[in-house]
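QA checklist item 7 of 12: single-chain prediction sanity check.
[x] sequence parsed
[x] length recorded as 596
[x] structure emitted
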Amino acid sequence: MVKTIIHKTLLALLPILLLVFSVNAQDEAGITFEMKLSKDKLGINERLRVDFTMNKDGDNFNPPAFEGFRVLMGPSQSISSSWVNGVRSYSKTYSYTLAPTTRGNMTIKQATIVIDGKTYKSLARKVEVTAAVDKPSDQMTADDVADESLHLVAEVSKTNPYLNEGLSVVYKLYVSPSISVSNYQPLDNPKYNNFWSQDIPVSRPVAENGTYKGKPYRYVVLKRVVLYPQKSGKLEIEPLSLDVTVDVPSNKRDFFGGRIYSQTNKTVSAGKRTINVKPLPEKGKPVNFSGAVGNFDFSVTTSKTALNASESLQAKVEVSGKGNLKLFQLPEPNLPGSLEVYEPEFNENVRTTLSGSQGKVSNSYTIVPSFKGKYPIPGISFTYFDPNAKTYKTITSDEILINVKEGPTNSSIGNTVDGNSNTKQTVAVGNQFNFLKLDSNLKPIGSNYFFRTKPYYLWLLLPLVLIPLAVLLSKKREAIASDVVGNKVRKANKLARRYLSKAKKELGNKEAFYIALEKALHNYLKAKLKIETSEFSKDKITSLLNEKQVDSTTTEGFISLLKNCEMARYSPFSDVQMQQDYDKASEVISHLDKQL
């Protein structure tokens, strides 16, 4: 009697126990990991598809041993991501195609995966394998063939670069010769957060022969991009996902004997890639290091070294070579104060290949001397980090002497002028000896004399006023010179306006326009918010602008401009859209100036 009661109690509790186990793979955070079978019962001559599905990406996937089955294909990965009413749904699946090796009741044991540092396990499933059936279901469906024959791969040139050292990512779609691809379109383009990116356009994908996991495949290069990490540590490259239309041949033939193809759509993803970025060494780091990383040459040249006063010459400060040419500031020459120097004209001749950016950048200064004399331009130092030699290198230019042959002289400067204008000059007056007139032409001054008048006392007190004012101005200049952060902000502000002007000139040239516009936005934020490029992320910008109490409309406008600059690398943009983005940038910067 007691055994009967216990037995009935266990039977009553069985559904509750099954419910408890069924939610074993779902936790409080809503993360699920489960196993799905194409069928629970099959003949020994049929095939079984097993899917392990999760709603959040994980690591260290460990499949079961599949005892009693032979793995025909797998694992193949598929990713689905969509936004519906502002809510994102995500699904990732590992798929296997199995063939039973014996009849009987089989058990497919648990699989495990680590998501957010926590291990999840799927529930074991039982499968009954019967004798061979007369009409087995399709042993290999079109989806099965497509999963095994289609692979999207992101090939990264360096996984352990230095900060600001270039690396390339090439996205290749591998296709087995047994199938054909009729169409594809991107679903989720990577954003490359914490990287400065430069796309290398692929004019027309061309199929080439290659191998994938030791097997012959055809592949096409879909996307090429060069990245410069702006932050040290572990950085993730988001996956590129494609929706691919695949034509899979079947065993059926048409009336004329031609093979019949089945068409299916598959989503393939290149998967996330982790880049471990090394910080630049602090040991031996020079004070004048401005962030240049690569292998460079440096020169300072002038168009002429001898000229007359009021004529002009060009002084060019140029860096050439291979590296992050677009991501550092050129050193400025220390010119004598008696030379009139105009704002430099920035020139850039840089091309980007898979090996990185190479070419040259320069600043051209127009210099106009006003007086006769000799003016030395001291040597300038340029420092860069060589990632191959793993050390800092400094190049110093030679001193250049400018000789102004003809022109007026200035008694306040010498015949030879140094960089600080501490000079001595011999002044030669044209007629040094003149005859004195013997007949005087003196007139009485009468009552209109200057002594003890109001102008006399004003001129007497003027030096007492000018001396403190000169002291205050001198201290102000010293404070500005010692304000490193302020000088960087002012330089960044100038760069922002320069690149915004360059963007206007490049209207109609999509790539050059959006590169210049992005640089203008970068330098504007560096000037206004005092943030470095390494901190440049949309979340950081939004947070800082909110702290500064910038209205949401202006903030959203700024973020949308950044997104357009990123989208322009892989999407077509019309001239009208470029003009709208330029007008919007001018308007947004104007609003930010007022609010910041």
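[x] summary fact logged: The chain has eight helices and 30 strands.
[ ] second reviewer sign-off
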